Amino acid sequence: MPVVTIKLAGNLTREQKKQIAAEVSDTLERVAQKPKRATYITFEELPREDWAVGGQLLDEK
Amino acid sequence: MPVVTIKLAGNLTREQKKQIAAEVSDTLERVAQKPKRATYITFEELPREDWAVGGQLLDEK
Amino acid sequence: MPVVTIKLAGNLTREQKKQIAAEVSDTLERVAQKPKRATYITFEELPREDWAVGGQLLDEK
Amino acid sequence: MPVVTIKLAGNLTREQKKQIAAEVSDTLERVAQKPKRATYITFEELPREDWAVGGQLLDEK
Amino acid sequence: MPVVTIKLAGNLTREQKKQIAAEVSDTLERVAQKPKRATYITFEELPREDWAVGGQLLDEK
Amino acid sequence: MPVVTIKLAGNLTREQKKQIAAEVSDTLERVAQKPKRATYITFEELPREDWAVGGQLLDEK
User: Fold this and answer.
1) Cα–Cα–Cα angle for C31, D6, B38, nearest 5°?
2) Is ipTM over 0.90?
3) Has the keyword Isomerase been applied to this entry (chains A, B, C, D, E, F) (predicted)?
4) Does the structural domain C3-56 have CATH classification 3.30.930.10?
């Protein structure tokens, strides 16, 4: 019963989320025998103002 | 000083959050002797588009 | 399908975890109509060296 | 620059982690144009005593 | 390659985030030799309705 | 009442944690007026086998 969190700056389209959810749960089933119905995947999309790399907010770069 | 995160798809009403916060911090105090004033509880409500089970976004089901 | 994370410094006994898991999933079912079978609860016990409050590690206090 | 967290009860072998990391970062690159070098993936393996479903610890079931 | 999450109730200004990101990544480089370019820092600002202390939502206090 | 999580591959010494905790809570007090006594900081040190970048586990590189 894996819980997968995918956190990123910016946005994904609904189609991208759909495709990623399908592929990641397939990977976990195929590689680690985790049944898809027990896998929860959540997406957390952050504004670029709320994510920093190299000491700078992404929207400063 | 527990930190409790309650993450779910969809929304809770303010009354539900209030009741859940009261009960969960009571449980931690009664069962594990964690003083209520030191317990932080946070709610994270995700759109159903951002949560997948069984390889499908909840709003596809 | 809530995912609840309970993070704390130090350890809980197995009996405490059992009791907390039962009560918290009961609260979520009763207050927010979340079926128990869909609620995941995880415990994360941290050494006191890995938790700071007031700018000090807990084991310095 | 996604950060992916894969949390599960029990253990994965090193080979399984290797395969999952390769596939998940490939998915994110192919579907969402996230360059692999910017994707961080972490695994968190929890003892079955620290994960509850349906109000019961997994090792009680 | 540290991943730092700063979660708080209420809001920070863009200037505060900028300053905090700069200082925290500087701390990690200076104290722990983690190169700034590899440090990700994310901010998660929660409404006061979604954060409880002492069993009460912050906006009840 | 910020909750700060610092997750990294490998280990920090106790002295490094102590210094980082002091500086980060000082930053949050000075820049964002968050009183130190309300700031929780946790460290999560992961084995290099449990962290992947660029699709590869860190210990493969």
Assistant:
1) 50
2) yes
3) yes
4) no
